[in-house]
Amino acid sequence: MSITIEIPQLKNFAKGLQDLPEKVARNILGSALKKAGRLLADRTQSIVPRHSGQLQKSIVGRAKKITEVERAYYVETPLFYAPLIEYGHKWVIKRGNKVIKAGNKGPAPFMRPAFDSTKEEIQNLIATDIGSSVAKQWKKLGNG
């Protein structure tokens, strides 16, 4: 599952970012994205169903460069059974060809609700962080 967040407030800072040295602008964007990603990862860990605690511990975030101007932050888990918990599943116990028991395990969503509950906070965090970082950089350069 992939989710894209549009942040309209960034239009206010676009010119200031573009006029900064490329490396500085890239670092500002990366830093803001990591903070927002950590917020989402923390929220996901706080609402994930707990049985052994392995799923909660396995939820991690990682940054990835898409293009020179695009960045992504993934919140994910490497555990194969995470989608089974998120979306639910059917289960069957067989002995030979004979079905002993069968049933459905309903979904216990955690990734989507975590995103839905933090979306606005993430947008505001990114916009605020980028805005303050751009202002600080311009002040350092003597242009603020």
Blueprint (SSEs and pairs):
Layout: H1 14-19, H2 22-47, H3 54-58, E1 60-65, E2 71-76, H4 82-87, E3 89-95, E4 98-105, H5 111-140
Antiparallel strand pairs: 1-2, 3-4
How large, in whole angstroms, is the Cα Rg? 21 Å
Beta-strand percentage? Answer: 15-25%
The total beta strand count reads: 4
Helix tally equals: 5
- The average pLDDT score comes to 85
Ends apart, CA distance between termini: 41 Å
Biggest sheet strand order reads 1-2
Q: Output the structural class.
A: alpha+beta
Kindly give the count of domains: 1
Q: What's the shape? A: elongated
Along the chain, the helix and strand elements come as HHHEEHEEH
What fraction, in percent, of the residue positions are helical? 40-55%
Instruction: Give a quick account of the main beta sheet: strands, pairing sense, barrel closure.
Output: 2 strands, antiparallel
Q: Provide the low-confidence segments as ranges.
A: none
What does this protein look like?
This protein has 144 residues and is an alpha+beta fold. Helices cover 51% and strands 19% of the residues. It has one domain. The chain has helices at 14-19, 22-47, 54-58, 82-87, 111-140, and strands at 60-65, 71-76, 89-95, 98-105. The chain has a two-stranded antiparallel sheet with strand order 1-2. Strands 3-4 form a two-stranded antiparallel sheet. The longest helix is centred in the C-terminal third of the chain and has 30 residues, at 111-140. The radius of gyration is 21 Å and the shape is elongated. The two termini are 41 Å apart.
